[in-house]
Amino acid sequence: MSFDSLGLRADLLRAVASQRYGRPTPIQAQAIPEILAGHDLLAGAQTGTGKTAAFVLPVLNLLAEQGHPQRHPRALILTPTRELAAQVGERVHAYGIHLPLRSAIIFGGVGMQPQVDKLQRGVDILIATPGRLLDHATRRTVDLSRVEILVLDEADRMLDMGFIHDIKRVLRLIPERRQNLLFSATYSDEIRRLADGLLKHPKTVEVARRNTPIAAVSQSAHPVDRSRKPDLLAHLIHREGWEQVLVFTRTKHGANKLAEKLTRDGITAAAIHGNKSQSARTRALDEFKRGLVRALVATDIAARGLDIANLPQVVNFELPNVAEDYVHRIGRTGRAGAVGSALSLVSHDERGLLKGIERLLRREIPMTPVIGFEPSANPPADQHEDDDRSRVRTDFTQRQRSAGRGDRMGAGQAARPGSQGGRRAAPARGR
Ligand code: AMP
User: Fold this and answer.
1) pTM for the full model?
2) Other beta carbons less than 10 A from residue 425's beta carbon
3) What is the pLDDT of residues 155-165, one digit of tens each?
4) N or C end of the chain: which has fewer CB within 10 A?
5) Is any atom of ligand 1 closer than 6 Å to the C-beta of 31?
6) Could you give the CA distance from residue 240 to residue 251 in angstroms, rounded to a whole number?
7) In a shared domain, residues 282 and 171
């Protein structure tokens, strides 16, 4: 299967050729012809599968076939986060480089006026987060009455983040006759309900079941006292000579503290999370990609959808409360055929979480102590008391709400018996 056989226009194939992709990925091979044929689509695919090109290429194709650019958006792509909007927007630009189509990226945290100016100049494709899009709609600085194609990217995450009402409000602003494409990494009951209400006779494509993409990721864990994790991480970065490592923490505060500590230890580091301004986040990501920052410390939501090619190393400084987030995290590495490595630092109180992850993955994650950092036999008191607990709640309130319903595909399908969901760790048993 080659890109040439998918039915895409020559000017799009030229743009794809300059990306030096060899072949279409499975989601691209399946989704592109269906979208070109005008079908609604329900696609199960997570980041790293090439899903963005799977909808951007055919959407560009359909718009280009219609001829002259118009003033009002004909395609609307909704994403859960600013970062994802920026990345999808960047792909739209790259793949559409030889087409006379105009696109705009609309998200919050930055000034309205440049976006208003851009919208007024005329836009064919709008890539937006729901909240800011509705701000524009309320001020009548965007007219959605000509939208013909709607894409919901990472729809599951949009629901997790509480965007369902915003999505419904957007749906009321766009024409009923349109093509709908829904991309989601997971199928919860909520996603099914959304899909049922949205999609007309959809074609369904599904690739990369929950635990296939991580086959290329080598996974390991070190047991360590919680209080010694920062020193262990700095030690490992020095010892292993990691030049580009993405580190996950559970809290924004924890991300800041850790980035500061690594910087003090001579490791260039930056934190990226929801409290940072958009420009600070973009700068940190850019510096990380360019190799100016060695360690990027991120919370789950901030890291969602980050497109960092060939990231060799991911570290779970803390395990996520929701086992499925582990899969999202380590999906940052080992992409598109590259081999990656994911390491978890596991304190005594996190062993139950690790068990939940192992159940979800249906595999054991080898755990070996690091000499000089062996955990104490009697775990110190700090491992029972989560000093960041209130912040954990703030960060995870919405996630826990959805996890508590127990309706997420990963947890539901792969790990229903004894899934950890969003609950706190069970007391550790010996491994
Ligand atoms: P996505 O799943 O859309 O986030 O894409 C993940 C990464 O794969 C991005 O860096 C894309 O540029 C890259 N990619 C997309 N399509 C292909 C392809 N056919 N071959 C190789 N890499 C691709």
Assistant:
1) 0.59
2) 18
3) 998 998 889 99
4) N
5) no
6) 26
7) no
